[in-house]
Amino acid sequence: MLPKIIEYLNNKSVLILGFGREGQSTLKYIRDYLPEKKLVIADKNNITVDDKNVEIISGENYLDCVNDFELVMKSPGISFKNVEVAENTEVSCQVDLFLRFAPCHKVGITGSKGKTTTSTLTYEMLKAAGYDARLIGNIGVPVFETLDTLTEDTVAVIEMSSHQLEFTRKSPEIAILTNVYEEHLDHYKGGFAGYVNSKLNIMRYQTENNSFIYNATQGVSQYIDLSVTPAHKVGVKADGELPFEVRNEYLLGEHNRQDVLFAYNAAKIFGADDSACEKGVENFSGIEHRMEKVGTYKGVTFYNDCIATIPHAVECAVEALKKVDTLIIGGKDRGIDYSEFVDYLLNCSVSNIIGTPETGHNIADEMLKKGTQKTVIKAADLEEAVEKAYEVTALDKICLLSPAASSYNVYKNFEEKGRHYKELIKKYSE
Q: 358 preceded by cis ω (within 30°)?
């Protein structure tokens, strides 16, 4: 008997759109069950596939073929901002089909920031409580890669990006929305409204028996009509009660406490007791590129917070670490309004601001225009930024890379940028 996902796409014409990790995972899963099915893969880059039943479409106009298929399995990073989808073409993705057909329990986590920490904490709490839990999705594990090992008792903890949710038409039984801030404005029709609309698919299709956990501190109700959400709703505030102390050094700051509260509420719905939840917090070992301590060199402690692509995340890191003397910012300009962030930088305790192209230079110009006693440096690139950081950062203080922007103007992703930063720290420490 074929799995339900394979049954669903067996008799459809299928386009795999984008051939990164998720696209490759989709091809492999289909081939495990349908080795002879004709498939088409479209990608902007030139790709090769050793499969006689696959046709390749590549080049700048690769999106022109979308409406030639009944089902398009779209990779999350591909924008449909300028694509009109025909009525008889269904656009889907791995997360959508997983939510519809996978035979297990599902917890979905999304938000502009905090989703990776919240997902990992939820997973650790459930695992400590004895559940067969899986941590998958936007965290780096395509959801199809776990399909063949799931049971009805498995709890899939799925980190979901707005890109994955954009064409998703099924919601998890437990949905967590950590927060909503300006992000990915260049990706969606309607800008911020389109971004928020995609995020809300995480709870839009829930039933009365499902649960929705949301950020009550932020006042997220401005985006959601709470009257139409499931009967079981939990508004989480950063100062909410926990039955244990959060002593983990990787969970500093009010924003991380709130992530613990999100995860705690989700785990409790499944029946995890307080001791298991506390153990889950203790087992949390941090996330690379999120307030990651790189080390102390020449009397300066360096932190890598490259995952912080919006101003609010930067502010949270600065407040949590407390001893930040130098802040390195800057990346791709996606149209985010930085006026309030400029005011924050002018008034916060950080002494040195080092800006890299593109947004870092713009923010530095605005700070200098308004007048400041702080040291404001426009670095040509990340290498010069690290070199300058060694020169200006006070001993026994922190230098923090927290860009407040995406990395795509120079790097493939924030991970590549963060690892380059760590290499540069060691290079200039010698």
A: yes
**CA atoms of 46 and 69, how far apart (whole Å):** 21
Burial class (CB in 10 A: 0-12, 13-18, 19+), 37: middle
**H or E element, residue 401:** strand 398-401
Our CA dihedral for 65, 70, 76, 79, rounded to 10 degrees, sits at: 40
Tens of pLDDT, residue by residue over 228-280, are 778 899 999 988 999 999 999 999 999 999 999 999 999 999 999 999 999 99
Give the pairing type, strands 300-304 and 292-297: antiparallel
Q: Does residue 2 sit within a domain?
A: no
Any idea what the CATH number is for the domain that residue 71 is in? Answer: 3.40.50.720
Q: Which residues contact 11 (CB under 8 A, 6 or more apart)?
A: none
Beta strands, E only, 124-230: 133-137, 155-159, 174-177, 211-215
- Is 270 in the same domain as 301? no
Where in the sequence is the domain holding 362, given as residue range(s)? 292-427
* 56-73 average pLDDT score: 97
- What pLDDT is stored for residue 266 in this prediction? 98
Kindly give, in sequence order, each residue whose CB lies less than 8 Å from that of residue 174, ignoring residues fewer than 6 positions away: 106, 107, 108, 210, 211, 212, 213, 266, 269, 270
Quick check: pTM over 0.85?
yes
Reported confidence tier of residue 223, pLDDT bands at 50, 70, 90: confident
E strands, 96-132, in order: 105-110
CATH number at residue 194: 3.40.1190.10
211 touches 217 (CB < 8 A) = no
